[in-house]
Amino acid sequence: MGDVQGRDDLYGFEWDFLVRDRDGLIAVFATAGAGTIPPAVFGELALVEQAVDALDELPSRGESVDLRSQDRLSGNYSECFELSRRGLFTYEWHLHHGPYEQVSAPTVPLVIEDVDRVLAKAAALHRVPVSFAEAAQIDIDEPGRENVRSHAMTAADTAPAR
Predict the structure, then answer these.
(1) Whole-structure pTM value
(2) Contact criterion met (CB below 8 Å) for 27 and 89
(3) Residue 147: in which H helix or E strand, if any?
(4) Rounded CA gap, 20 and 24, in Å?
(5) Each residue's pLDDT tens digit, 135-145
(6) Most buried residue, 36, 41, 62, 97, by CB count within 10 Å?
(7) Do the beta carbons of residue 27 and residue 132 sit within 8 Å?
(8) Which H or E run contains 90?
């Protein structure tokens, strides 16, 4: 991403990073050009970009569950659904004010112990003390102080995404 000196240099650019949860599951967080980036992640931009680029090489493991909120029903989220088929949870920043909202979930989650060193290291830069399987929203304020809103998955929630 060139010569990035501070968070303002990324403002307006879609930028993705990885996060692990308390269970060792991995999620991709998409900033939508404005989302918060944990300091440890920001300090390792090259590693994170390498890891995110490598996600395209992961094989499909299962289906994707569409967990978009009502205000996200329009738009193209095919990349999120593809990442979930590869075992990753996905969250996108709610434009202009946050928090990160879950877009999709995998039916067969990828565990941090099952990925290569680069992906594992990038995902371990920021850990949230919750399970992605239960967190509909995550507001990353500062390390260890995430605000989380959970959801209980229903049968309708587990229908595969298109």
Answers:
(1) 0.81
(2) yes
(3) strand 147-150
(4) 6
(5) 999 988 644 44
(6) 41
(7) yes
(8) strand 89-93
